[in-house]
Amino acid sequence: MQLTKEKFIRDFKDAVHEAQLIKVPAATPTEAFVSLAKVIRKYYTPLWLERNRKISEDQKKVAYYFSIEFLPGRMLETNLLNLGILDTVKEGLADLGIDFEEVKNAEHDMALGNGGLGRLAAAFMDSLATTGYPGFGNGLRYKYGLFKQRIVDGYQVELPDSWFGSIGNVWETRKDHDIVDVKLFGNVYLQANEEGRIMPVYENAQILRAVPYDVPQIGFGNDNINNLRLWDVEIPEEYELNYPTVADRRRVQDITATLYPDDSSYEGKELRLIQEYFMTSAGLQTIIQSYLKQNRPLENIHEKVSVHINDTHPAVAPAELMRLLVDDYGLEWDKAWQTTVKTMSYTNHTILSEALEKWDAELFKNVLPRVYQIILEIDNRYVAELAQKGVNPETIENTRIVKNDQIHMANLAIIGGHSVNGVAKLHTELLKDDTLHDFFVLFPEKFNNKTNGIVQRRWTQIAAPELSEAIDKTIGTGWRTDIHELRKLNELADNPEILADFYQVKQDAKAKLAAYIKETTGIDVSTDAIFDVQVKRLHAYKRQLLNLLHIIKLYWDLKDNPDLDMVPRVFIFGAKAAPGYHFAKSVIKLINEIANLVNQDASLQGKLKVVFLENYNVSLAELIIPAANVSEQISLASKEASGTSNMKFMMTGAVTLATLDGANIEIKDEVGDDNIVIFGMDKDEVYQHYANHDYYSRGVYESNPTIKRVVDTFVNGTIPNSASEGTEIYEALITHNDEYFLLEDFEAYVAAQAQIDALYRDKEKWSRMSLLNIANSDKFTSDDTITQYAQDIWQLEN
Ligand code: 26W
């Protein structure tokens, strides 16, 4: 959109006067932020209205991305950048004596997600708007997002994330117009109606009101605005008498109160099931209503609507759509089923079996009695159809939805949809060959890969403005709109001046992070050191502990030989652990205690520093990632479905130190073997261990003195204040046979780290590697990923 600085200043002043009844110079950053948001809303509202009008006038097919998590982080700067008015606004504010950074920091992260899955959903929203495809989000409006993490005495403490604060969500619009009701609990029986149709009769159901709040998703440079619809729950006025006490009301409000903070294991909690159903049912109801306005037959809804199931959390969708089509709109079962399968598609984000959702049939039946009946019917018909085709009984049993009194949600998503995708090449292969092999044999045509991506604009132009300027200076600004132009940097990678420029940009980013580290932890770190970073959720399979084992080895090397010739290293961690995940919390405690140990030891001469930054979130990632020299992506091969931070690090010039897992493999393919450091077992070697049952960690421990010394450090009193956590870790590694093969990969990891040290000493060589990583990162733009979803899975037009 077009905007002059003068007009902006006038609008902004007016907004401050009107909203705060104060003059601009008196406005606090929060007041300035609220007023700025009001001004921006005024700018985009006509664009948003126009977009909605156009989509319905053109009767375009729309994809709805159903996700229990969306993790956009802050929206202000993205919104301004995408509207094309970021520089104008920054200049206008500067004229008024207002620091844009302060205003920006007044916005609370929108953290309605745990990690990769939620961040990916937010990235897809941005990219859908940017590519111009009509793709809308559908999720929950949690009052509290992912917990705020504080570290007290080295331990993680969780605090509620009250992100609404006193100002609420400045971007959202409540849409009373689209309110719907959602039914839970009660009894259902079937009865013939006057026309002889068998209809469900509900008794004593709880009826809740679903209220949508729409958050605009602004496309980059195209004035295109899509919709992220987040549902809140309310008690319908007419049923108020059913909720006489505060406790009664609270039980309802709980449905949208908090995001479940667990991304490591599935928990069969009733409230979670209600959350999942609530957003799915409400979303589908409004989708049908808006489709019907086009006066088209419901049995063709797949021609104008796609519903995407992001992981299994919204996987009740095929059954709920069947319920709506058959019960509420009177479609024949077979017709309804055909259109349902054509409408639905599903992405799997993990092969960890403990994270695959299964519901106890009893619990499910109690909460969703009618949907339960429908699932049984889908399951019966599925089994009968396959049996009739002569499929062997074992395959049928493996793939059916209801068995052993459990409902397998992934199976429902696969059977009830036409597409199943993994999120990186290796992950999709593993799904086909292993996790979902029986499905792949039955329905090979449903399977496809969609390697994840990132919103390059956030990780370059917003998080790394100095890097972006350095790129502008070398290849011009075209890459800002067409990321593939980054490839031009490949030709410049031998130019020493350019390399020196980029080196300096990284040094400046490191200085910024160093200042933050000093301010928040008191630890001094030198920008001459290698900044070696591992930031992600804390999980055993991601192997933060392997990183720690190497740190302990370095510690002993330096204690043995204080003059050891090594490039100084700062190991930086950021990680939240699921509140109930004991082992993960013990690892956090140990990282912090080891940090205390090494940071205070003068004999190490500052060569080794360990920093744990609390409350890792999107905004902190924007500070940390551009400052990294080394990107730690060291999960056990086969376990990390894709990873997406690996892509962000690459794009901002870190060198990846990685196992052949997830998208690391594709990063290696893009950047070439010389510009990445790979180590450890590959997926086949891991699977061979599983098949042969031949791994014995105690044997490795007893026969390798270095490993023994490192592991013993956890239990011999070297690390203060962590006896019980140290024992727990020792036992995981030795008594419980080291589930993620840390000891097996240890030596390879140490060697890879030595290689990093050697490479970094040659400044020019390192800078070249760094630049080549940036130059070849364009493959990972989520704009291209979403284009593939839109074309291959959803068949959309932009
Ligand atoms: C049921 C509890 C639960 C909740 C969330 C289990 C598992 C999850 C998610 C599937 C975990 C997740 O975020 N997976 C990550 O998805 C990213 C986006 O595709 C991938 O890049 C990561 O590799 C994958 O771990």
Q: How is the topology of this model organized?
A:
Layout: H1 5-20, H2 29-57, E1 62-66, E2 70-73, H3 76-83, H4 86-95, H5 100-105, E3 110-112, H6 116-131, E4 135-140, E5 148-152, E6 155-159, E7 173-174, E8 180-184, E9 187-192, E10 198-203, E11 206-218, E12 225-234, H7 246-253, H8 270-292, E13 305-310, H9 317-328, H10 333-343, E14 344-347, E15 358-360, H11 361-367, H12 369-388, H13 393-399, E16 402-403, E17 406-408, H14 409-415, E18 420-422, H15 425-435, H16 437-442, E19 447-449, H17 456-462, H18 465-475, H19 496-521, E20 530-535, H20 544-560, E21 569-574, H21 582-599, E22 608-612, H22 618-624, E23 630-633, H23 645-651, E24 655-658, H24 664-671, E25 677-678, H25 683-692, H26 697-703, H27 705-712, H28 723-735, H29 742-761, H30 763-775, H31 782-793
Helix pairs in contact: 1-2, 1-4, 6-31, 8-9, 9-10, 9-12, 11-12, 18-19, 19-30, 20-21, 20-27, 20-29, 21-28, 26-27
The structure holds ligand 26W.
Residues 115-117, 120, 262-263, 266, 311, 349-350, 355, 357, 423, 452, 640-644, 662 line the site of ligand 26W.
